[in-house]
Amino acid sequence: MSTAQKIVRALSLLSLLVLVACQTNFQSTAQSREKIVLTTDEKLKLVAIESATIKKLLESAVEQTTLTKDYDPAYIVLSYPNGDVPMEKGVCTDVVIRAFRKAGVDLQKEVHEDMAGNFAAYPKKWKLSKPDTNIDHRRVPNLQTFFARQRKSLPITDRAENFKPGDVVAWDLNGKGLTHIGLVSNFYSETTKRYLIIHNIGGGAQAEDRIFDWKIIGHYRYF
């Protein structure tokens, strides 16, 4: 068995273990048994994580690649706290939100409470007059503002070694304010010498070697 085959087999087993441990509401369908979505031809290794919190964070991100298959930006009324859209769909921010919840942080609640007390500190591009628990935490600029206000920002660099598993990265996709966000995974490319990103940019949650494909506008380390 080649090294690449061994890694794919190991990642498949990891995905199955995560699905069992999380006791999701999904039935044992063909979809939930799929391997982690790795859209890359790189030679990969799975880097061990010591932090129990970051392990939980990344377990959720891995799980999402097997469950979240669609990108859907529709406004949806959510329960509060811990509200979520159906797991099979979502946007880029939902990858981060779901992973943080597995790690013990409900960004819906945390962002709402901070916005309620500091509304003027948050972006005004949506022309809202008050916080909205259904959507505020699902907007990249709001998450950026929240992370920065929590003093979780790190310098933005073009050095791959500065990005660690569990970090949050935000990008400007087109140079005109079209924003995107994702998580740094612990899947390390031995070819490019950098970690893959777990994100949803249109085809569901995936792990891809794309950290420098767009202009980075935010780098955060919450845990």
For the sheet with most strands, the description reads: 6 strands, antiparallel
Any idea what the CATH architecture is? Answer: Alpha-Beta Complex
Write the H/E string, N to C.
Answer: HEHHHHEEEEE
Classify the fold: give the CATH topology: endopeptidase fold (from Nostoc punctiforme)
Number of domains: 1
Radius of gyration: 17 Å
Shape: globular
Q: Total strand count, please? A: 6
Q: Structural class, judged by helices and strands?
A: alpha+beta
Provide structural commentary:
The chain is α+β, with helices and mostly antiparallel strands and 223 residues long. The chain has a single domain (3-220), classed as endopeptidase fold (from Nostoc punctiforme) (Alpha-Beta Complex). It is 30% helix and 16% strand. It has 5 helices and 6 strands. It has helices at residues 3-22, 52-67, 92-102, 107-117, 140-149; strands at residues 44-46, 168-172, 179-189, 194-200, 205-208, 215-220. Strands 1, 2, 3, 4, 5 and 6 form a 6-stranded antiparallel beta sheet that branches. Strand 3 and strand 4 (194-200) form a beta hairpin. Helix 2 (52-67) crosses helix 3 (92-102). It is globular and about 50 Å long. It starts with a helix and ends with a strand.
